[in-house]
Structure formats: structure tokens, C-alpha cells
Amino acid sequence: MGRYFKNIGRNFSRLSDKCDPQTNCCIYVVKSVYDKQTTESYDEKKWERYIQVGCTLTDERLAECTEYDNIGDNISNLNRQFCELTGLYWIWKNSKEDIVGLEHYRRHFTLEDDWFDKMLERNIDVILPVLLYVHPSIAENYRGRHEKKVWDAMMSVLRRQPEVYDSAMDFFENTGCYSPCNMIIARRDVLNDLCEWLFPIVFEVAGRIGQIDNIYQNRYPGFLSERLITFFFYHNANKYKVVYADKNFSQ
Fold this sequence. Notes:
Elements: H1 2-7, H2 21-24, E1 25-31, E2 48-52, E3 67-68, H3 79-82, H4 85-94, E4 99-104, E5 107-109, H5 115-121, E6 126-129, E7 132-133, H6 138-145, H7 148-158, H8 162-174, E8 177-178, E9 184-187, H9 188-209, H10 220-235, E10 242-245, E11 247-249
Parallel strand pairs: 1-2, 1-4, 2-3, 6-10
Antiparallel strand pairs: 4-9, 5-11, 6-9, 7-8
Helix pairs in contact: 7-9, 8-10, 9-10
């Protein structure tokens, strides 16, 4: 029966089947040729796969990577500014797993071995990193640490979405917590929903602002997306079940 369903393009799953993270999900771990050398070893998990980002900008290929962000529908050429978002875009457009995720070569979710089964058993849609608290609010913290004109451009873009603008304004001005690092694990359809909303906003802001003559501040698309991803799941709390997981950081 399994072979028959596969031949007609359908999935056959028994109630008693255990989930196999190697075939049903993948957490893509972002790496680039510009990564700093780590002093701590890390044992790759069976559900993780390395993806090299910024491949269009270099001829060098990392041996440990099995995926490259310049294959298929991609924005690899934007990596110097969009950072790990070129990996997220590639995952959205090209990966095939039912559950997909994004981590960094130095930042990984702290997950138990049976996390995949728990995600399905508890009908969890999304796993995000434990929230980071900033003072006095998400908006004020961003304006204090980054370019204010970038934040103003993002809010101007959101203003054209009346169904979310007031909620976003209230959330950003009166909330002090967001999930950092653009790390996420989500069901395929949920990731699609997020990316279909997120990327047009970030692209338009980047089109308005362009390049900033500061390497760190020029990474504003990634800084914005951390806040936008958090807001998206706050605003859609009645639609998606979100849980949080700790992350580790490799020196």
C-alpha cells in the first residue's frame, strides 16, 4: 500500500507509524565562507543539513554543505545585506520536507531526540527561540540601536495593510520581547504563510532604503525580520500553535 500511494503521489501513513526526522523534516543550518572559526565542536543531528549562503558571491564551496542558496529560485546575490534570509528564502522556495527549519552554524535549537513526534502529537505549528527581552519596547530598542529611517520605512509599508497595522503598532510600541536570530521550525504550510507575508515587506523596505554605508547596519533586512516574524505569530496566535525552545551558542 505504501508503494502504491507513493506511485500516485500520495502519502500513506499508519496511525502506529513513528515519525522519522530524516525523511519528514529538515532543519537547515546556515553557513558561509565568512563564518568565524568556532573553538567548540558540535555534533550534527540527524535532522540537520548544512546550507551554504551567499554562493553567488563566491566561487568557494564549503565541503560540509549539501545545499547551496544559489540553486533554483533564490536571492543568493543579496546575502551581504540579507544574511540568513537568503537561506530562509531558499528553504521556502526549494525545500520539500513537511517540516522545515533554519538554524545558524553557531546557534542551534536545544531539542530532545523525540521533538519531532512531540510536535505532531501536540499539533504544534511552529517552534521559535525563547523570547529576548529588550527595554523599553521593541520599536524603541530598534530605533536606539539601528537606523531610525529603516524602522520608519517598515512601518510605512505596514500602513498599507490596515488589517495588521494597528496591531503591529501596538505590539512594537508596547511589547519588549521578540524571538531573535531568525531561527524557526515550522510546518511547511505555515512557513509558506509566513514567507509570503514577510518577504514582500522586507524587499520593499530594502528598495526604499538601499545600501547603508556601515557593514553592521546594512544588515537591516535581517534585523527587521526578527521583529516581523515575532509579530506575525503574535498577530496570528489564534491560527497557529507556537511553542518556544532554548538555543545554544557555540564559541
